[in-house]
């Protein structure tokens, strides 16, 4: 009976903590949304001028943006003045800033962009404190700017802390990039949440205080890339924020 009572207390305490976090999420979201941006490119004579590629979030003194390395284009149409850019909403107006890539960590699929006009920065949390079973929120642009510059928020539980290699069922799926990850594995957070390609670069944060513990990196696709919108797998992977901290240290 004592064991049952202890288990019941644990369950009730966990449920109470989750309810408290849920009640704080609206305030947390209002505080951090101004620092969550869309990332893409801007070309003056293109229609549309903006090309959405992913999500990013502001850190540091407000002039640095974190996103995935795969979100940043490897080449730009410089002849026609194409530039990396971020897009966001401020005071009910859609705004844009040109950005420059100042650091990249392709091994962990991270990149740092620099902007000229500072935006509200998000605080970074403690990767070591993350445990399986904890629930976090993430905010980004799941289907780009189709619905306008209005970031969308989801929640997901850390269902596993696992190596960054998704098992390949067929030998034909194994390529040099996968083999490199097998040689140099690192842990990522697997979330039981539905994210989409546009969520790449979204911050995963504590609903209680808004501290970022990871960056959305990829979505497990169960069929084809084309069907990811209609048949999401509900499995998402995120890069622990410690790798962002290491990348930022190298900037100084």
Number of strands: 13
Q: How much strand content do the residues show?
A: 25-35%
Shape: globular
Q: Describe the sheet with the most strands.
A: 7 strands, antiparallel
Order of helices and strands: HEEEEEEEEEHEEEEH
- How many angstroms does the end-to-end distance come to? 58 Å
Task: Give the averaged pLDDT, no decimals.
Answer: 83
Determine Rg (CA atoms, Å).
Answer: 19 Å
Report strand order across the widest sheet: 5-4-1-2-3-7-6
* Topology-level CATH name of the domain at 127-249: Thrombin, subunit H
Report the CATH architecture of the domain at 127-249: Beta Barrel
The CATH first-level class of the domain at 127-249 comes to Mainly Beta
Describe it.
The chain has 252 residues and is an alpha+beta fold. The chain has a domain of 123 residues: Trypsin-like serine proteases (Thrombin, subunit H). The protein has three helices and 13 strands; from the N terminus they run αβββββββββαββββα. The strands form two sheets. Strands 5-4-1-2-3-7-6 form a seven-stranded antiparallel sheet, with helices on one face. Strands 8-9-10-13-12-11 form a six-stranded antiparallel β-barrel. The chain is globular, with a radius of gyration of 19 Å.
